[in-house]
Amino acid sequence: MSDSPPPRVTIVGIGGALGSGTSTLAGLLREHVGPERCVVIDADDYFVREDVHSLVHRLREIRSSSVSGAAPSDILVLVQGSVLLATSLLQGLLDVKVFIDVPSGVLAARMERGEREGHDSKLRRSVQSMGSDIQGDTDRYARSADIILDGLSLSALDSKVLWGAIRAASSRGPLG
After folding, report:
1. Domains along the sequence of the chain with CATH
2. Fewest beta carbons within 10 Å, which of 8, 129, 150, 159?
3. What is the pLDDT of residues 77-104, one digit of tens each?
């Protein structure tokens, strides 16, 4: 029986408008940290199913439970997606908030390209149905973010530097 404490769980939200690169960034961080220590949750999947409350419940369970059989290092949970901008329920569960800022003209071009390539547009339609409030939500999320990234330069981002910034921003102390 081990006397070591259970691993800490740190929940990082990666938010940005549709097409900003939240999935790309989550993948880069998971690769850097290692899949054995990192879980990625796509919040937009819950939003499309109109089940954000299930995601809130899942995050609360993750936060309150000890992770049995896990490595002795910390566990990183990355919650990514544009839905993070639209609900304060999720924002209150995040230890660190990362915002990816991309000019609206670039986002429109990315969305148009996605539609031409046949990507599902159900989420886009759902977000559009929210009306003009989404811009206010985006602005509020950006103002409350611990880290703001230039979405035009994600491909040049050094994941080691970003990981250091996340560790420094974590209110729960340095991560492994």
Report:
1. 9-168 (3.40.50.300)
2. 129
3. 999 987 776 677 787 888 899 998 888 7
